[in-house]
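We examine the record.
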Amino acid sequence: MCGITGYIGDKKAAEVLIDGLKRLEYRGYDSCGVAIINGKNELYLRRVSGRVDALDELVAKDPVKGGFVGIGHTRWATHGVPSEDNAHPHTDCNNQVVIVHNGIIENYLEIKEKLSKTGHKFKSETDTETIVHLVEEKLKTLHVSAANARADMLEPVFFEAVRRAIADLKGSFALSVIWAKCPNMILAARQHSPLAIGLGEGGNFIASDVSAFLKYTKKAVFLNDGELAAVKAPSVSYFSFQGKKLDHSPVTIQWDSTMAEKGGYKHFMLKEIHEQPGSVENTLRGRLLPLKGDVLEKEINLPTAVIREIKNVQIIACGTAYHAGLVGRYVFENFALPASVDFASEFSDRAKIINKDTLIIAVSQSGETADTLHAVKEAKASGARVIAITNTVGSTLTREADYVLYTHCGPEIGVASTKAFLGQMTAMYVLALHFAVIRGNIFDTDARIYVDELLKIPRLIEATLAGEDNILKIAGDFAGSEHFLFISRYINFPIALEGALKIKEIAYVHAEGYAAGEMKHGPIALIDKGMPVLAIATSSKMLQLVAGNIEEAKARGAEVIAIVDEDSREHIKASKYIVVPKTLEILSPLVNVIPLQLFAYFIALAKKCDIDKPRNLAKSVTVR
């Protein structure tokens, strides 16, 4: 995610930028910085590894002289560990062109290699730095000699250099660029990452979201994908990436600054639920093709020889990540690779009997979960190799593991995990598909079918989210219930567990998740008249068995809420239905968990619980 700010006008840029970064810190908080063009058209650059308060102190000790145009950034690391060198803004070789960027540049290694051959020197490990050097190179190809040129004469050249640089990029980006030789203009561009322009009196603003500038103006323009903005103090012009002039009418923001941080949502959890199509896309991006091992070897240095040699996979995790691991076990076994899952806190004895033939997959959103870290150390002591699936660059887990696959979901503020869970499950599919092809367990044509269906998942999640009002209504009917039962079979059994965990975490009510076939082995005794039973009953090879389990629950007086797709609904008789789009059964957990997250959220909302900060819980459990 990360947070971008930009300002040009009659106010002191440093004050505006740092105030904006403080309001955007929820988007990223491992490093930050500002770049300002001072009164002598020289660059003032300050960066820190850490929070915005540390940057504020640094700037206060050595303030910029003059300076009414600048850009700022607070970072959530995706390429390169959190450090001052990797912090934004990034500069070109001559410290004249400066950039801040959100997103992921998929072809940055290719660009970096070409630029290095032409003499460019890189100072960071980030994908972002390649963009600023690319702009510098484009300026060279345009034969710019800025020594004696007026700034206004350089504006078209600066615009064209940035436009041409953007044309070479593959991936997602929101970016802002300034050039010390052209101090009366900031350029901003968007492709698959949000960017807003704030229209103020005496100046204009750029930000990842409007919370950064609501203090100054409520008039905003939201850039669309494929659009550039030339932002000056008195005016803003809009263009397509092809250079065609565009028209935009501003909207008036009705939110206050707190709601703006949440994108207009009441809680971070609801916002993060709605961000899940992007979470899946970000975890998949650039990783599915080719399925020959090239992607894994290039990105995480995992040799194909290791993938061929291992005899089984052992997944370790805690809490919601454990449920992602359970889904992963079904996925790996679907592709004929034996897999098992353990709570990291219960792994000590198992660790003693594993060896180098076992590949450990350790899953942790924060990368700091104490039980998971301890389990990884025990596994490595037994000779096993470890892949980490995590959302946090530079975390302890990334240093302990042999290989790291990042989920790129951005910071998750709500304590109850939602989008990080989707990212973890998606990472399991990425690994399992690559492993299956490399080991010869699946034909390439069949693998391509899975890839094509997996790429559709973000749109299916969006369609599921569109049914939110129906889920709100159903949740309202059961908001007074103190007991819930969640049931399913096969690969959706972990989703039943996750649905129960979510409602326990944020609504403080008793809930149990069970494999539906186990219901009559004890849990059926819990059911009495009116008890809500949420049954995942989408199209499946076990649908008839699930239908039978539903009938057993109904016979004991349960109110059954069935999660179905358009085909399975014909076979299920329930009190209430939540209809989701149909996908392959093996991929269905990615869709089926969405209504359970929303159901838990709306139950908690009705009970007036502190949804983003549930009692007794912490975002990362760093003690054993």
Observations:
- The mean pLDDT is 92.
- The chain has three domains: 3-261, 265-462, 467-624.
- The longest strand covers residues 97-105.
